[in-house]
Amino acid sequence: MPVELRKRKAPAAPAAPAPPAKKASRTTTKTNPVKAVAAKAKAAITANTKKPSTTAVTKNATNGAPTVAVPKGGIDKVKVGDVVTLEGFGGEVETNDGVKTTLKALVEGSKNGVAIFTYPKASTPGCTTQACNFRDGYTSLTSTGLSIYGLSTDSPKANTNFKTKQNLPYTLLCDPDASLIGAIGLKKSPKGTTRGVFVIDKEGKVLAAEPGSPTTTVDVVKKLVGGVEANGIANDAADKEADKKKEDVEKAEVAGEVADTAAKLDGGVEGNGETAKA
Prior knowledge:
The chain is of the alpha/beta class. Helix content is 42%, strand content 15%. It has a domain at 56-229: 3-Layer(aba) Sandwich (Glutaredoxin), CATH 3.40.30.10. It has helices at residues 33-48, 103-108, 125-136, 138-141, 156-166, 179-183, 216-277, and strands at residues 56-59, 66-69, 83-84, 92-95, 100-102, 114-118, 147-152, 171-174, 196-200, 206-211. The strands form two sheets. It has a seven-stranded mixed β-sheet with strand order 5-4-8-7-6-9-10. The longest helix has 62 residues, at 216-277. The relative contact order is 0.11. It holds the Pfam family AhpC-TSA. Monomer. Belongs to the peroxiredoxin family. BCP/PrxQ subfamily. Residues 1-34 are annotated as: Disordered.
C-alpha cells in the first residue's frame, strides 16, 4: 500500500517584539524662589483685605466726630453721634403743600436743628396718636429751637387731609420713594416705613435715630429738649456765679485802692504839720 506523504506546514514566523514604551518626558521648570515668596505674600494680603465701606467717613474739622456721607438709598444706617454731609442726603422730598425741599434746606432754615418722626400711613389709628402727641407737645418740643416735621410715603393730598383734620401745627413731608426715610434708617424691607424718630442739629450731628412707638418717639425728643434746657439752666447758674466772683474781686480792688489813697493822704497831712512846727 503506497504511503501518502503530507506536506508539513511551515512554522509561523515569531511575532515581532513590541517596541519599548517611550518614557514620558519630564520637563523641569525652575522656580524663582524670590518670585514665589512675593506671590504668596500678595495672595495673603488680597485675602485679608476688607471690602471698602459704602459709607465715606472722614473727621469733622471742628469736633473730631466722624462725618458720614450716606448714599440716597440709605445703605448704611446713621448712628447717634455721626455728623452727616447734608448735601444730597436723603434726596428730595415734598411738603404737604407741594413744595420741593431737602433735609439740608430744612436744617438750614431751622434755629437749632430738626426733629422728624416717621409714620407708616396717614390717618390710621397709630399714626394719628403719634401725630397728636407731637401736636400736643409742640410748644415745649420747639422751645429750644428744634423744628418738628412728620415724614411718610403718603401723597401731598393724603398728608394735607391728615394735617387739616388733626389740626397739626407742623409741616408733613411726603417721600413716595422713601429716599429720605431710607437714608435715616427707617425704611422697612422690602417696602414700607418703620415708625421712628430722627433728630439732627445745625452742624449735621445726629442726636437721635431710632424706631419707636407713637409715645416713645415723642419722648425721645422731650428728653433731648429737657437736656438742652437743663444745660442752659446750669450754664446760666455758672455765668451768674462767675459774674458774682468777678464783682467781688472788683470790689476788693476798689477797697484796696481807697485804703491806699487814704494812707497817702494821712501821711501828707502829718508831714505838713511837722513842717509848720519847724
